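Re: that backbone. Tokens:
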């Protein structure tokens, strides 16, 4: 009988309508009926600005809460594919005075009636990416965010570009709700490979001919387990996803995650009062490959909890992650953002603050001439120290093992300072900061042989700490192929 190798298509997604009961137009205070409602940042509650009544945010209903039971694909209605030809301009009829009010969802999701001054808002989801499933309210006031940004920049004033120091002012920081996808996953992992356990290290030879050797025991290693991933968060703005952009420091915004998305509220346009927002412009099919790869990173690092004896590393030859189910929610998450355009390099620098946790990261323009000059001084000092140390070295204590550090002191200093100011490699460490639970663990460790006189301090090919989902790449179709049949 001929074997059938055709991969079946993924199951049709289950759509959970997250805007049940939502009505476009007026959101009224449950106590007095007024429509002037805003967020009380101190308490995270919605507050009527007329009678001062405060009420609890509403939670989204209908989504799976026990991720270990998740099967197939569950999608919040706000995370469905964007319909390109949906109009961004909507007309509402004010229920108070009957006037028609136009809202351009490309720039706002609420407006005031120009006749009776009642507030009208977009609460029902429209298929253009403007209305998410959930929103995480701002918790950090503007003054607090200004303080965090000032502390970050003040620690980097010495090598900051003089024009930046002259222009720097936190009064113009913006509170922005940025679009994200929050993903839960239920999966089964199977890893097979080999690991090494260090037995001893020793040195042979003399002077510059000294060599350090390592003896290690080699094992066949296998780990199989169920794993749930909760609250994996990825940007759903194509612009912010590009964390290797040459004209923007987008990686800075990525690095201030994670958010406490478990505290998100059901979408309500009143949360946006006083803040800006950006629409989602990517679909699940475009983000699926990145989510799957980051989930494999999370799974791989979770397995490291069972591999502590392999102190030289593990080289996985097989890494399978079979997805049983996923759940997607579109979310607006709060960020305080300071931006500065460095005209000489046409580079937009960001300093971003997580408006829930205060985590701050940024990129500060560098005075390259000053940094080069100071680095040159450090290099000269290092060279002089190297010459001095030569006078005190005996034939049995050669400087070859560490003397090069003094000879490269200026280059090392430059690299450290550049990294501190630009933070080009700052990112969200999703593999460690995303909640994951491992169950039904099966492990196999079989001794193979002892390897002696190895010259590499770590196992060749070790990849158990590898991270492959830290940059946006194309994984066309990979996500869809992972569902179990």
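Recovered sequence:
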């Amino acid at each position: 009988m001929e074997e059938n190798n055709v991969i079946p298509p993924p199951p049709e997604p289950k759509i959970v309508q997250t805007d049940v009961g939502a009505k476009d137009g007026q959101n009224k205070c449950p106590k007095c009926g007024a429509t002037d409602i805003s967020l009380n940042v101190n308490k995270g509650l919605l507050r009527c600005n007329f009678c001062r009544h405060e009420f609890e945010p509403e939670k989204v209903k209908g989504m799976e809460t026990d991720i270990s039971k998740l099967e197939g694909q569950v999608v919040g209605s706000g995370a469905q594919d964007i319909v390109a030809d949906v109009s961004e301009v909507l007309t509402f009829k004010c229920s108070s005075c009957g006037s028609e009010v136009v809202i351009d969802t490309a720039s706002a999701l609420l407006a005031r009636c120009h006749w009776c001054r009642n507030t009208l808002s977009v609460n029902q989801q429209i298929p253009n990416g403007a209305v998410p499933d959930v929103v995480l309210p701002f918790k950090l006031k503007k003054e607090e965010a200004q303080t965090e940004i000032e502390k970050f920049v003040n620690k980097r004033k010495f090598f900051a570009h003089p024009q930046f120091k002259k222009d720097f002012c936190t009064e113009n920081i913006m509170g922005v709700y940025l679009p994200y996808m929050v993903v839960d996953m239920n999966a089964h992992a199977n890893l097979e490979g080999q690991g090494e356990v260090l037995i001893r290290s020793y040195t042979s030879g003399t002077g510059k001919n000294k060599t350090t050797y390592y003896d290690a025991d080699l094992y066949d290693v296998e780990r199989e387990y169920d794993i749930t991933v909760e609250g994996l968060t990825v940007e759903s703005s194509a612009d912010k996803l590009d964390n290797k952009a040459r004209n923007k420091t987008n990686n800075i915004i990525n690095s201030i995650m994670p958010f406490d998305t478990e505290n998100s509220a059901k979408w309500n346009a009143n949360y946006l009062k006083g803040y800006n927002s950006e629409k989602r412009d990517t679909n699940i099919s475009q983000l699926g490959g990145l989510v799957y790869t980051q989930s494999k990173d999370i799974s791989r690092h979770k397995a490291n909890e069972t591999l502590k004896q392999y102190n030289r590393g593990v080289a996985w030859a097989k890494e399978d992650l079979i997805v049983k189910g996923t759940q997607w929610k579109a979310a607006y998450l709060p960020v305080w953002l300071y931006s500065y355009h460095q005209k000489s390099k046409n580079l937009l620098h960001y300093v971003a603050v997580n408006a829930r946790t205060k985590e701050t990261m940024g990129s500060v323009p560098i005075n390259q001439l000053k940094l080069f000059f100071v680095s040159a001084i450090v290099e000269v000092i290092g060279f002089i120290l190297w010459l001095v140390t030569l006078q005190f070295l005996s034939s049995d204590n050669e400087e070859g093992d560490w003397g090069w550090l003094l000879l490269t002191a200026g280059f090392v200093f430059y690299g450290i300072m550049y990294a501190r100011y630009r933070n080009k490699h700052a990112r969200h460490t999703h593999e460690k900061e995303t909640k994951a639970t491992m169950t039904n663990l099966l492990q196999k460790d079989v001794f193979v042989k002892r390897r002696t006189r190895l010259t590499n301090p770590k196992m060749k090919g070790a990849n158990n700490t590898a991270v492959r989902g830290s940059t946006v790449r194309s994984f066309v179709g990979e996500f869809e192929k992972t569902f179990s049949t």
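Residues 370-419 form one domain. The chain has three domains: 19-59+83-128, 67-78+132-363+423-482, 370-419.
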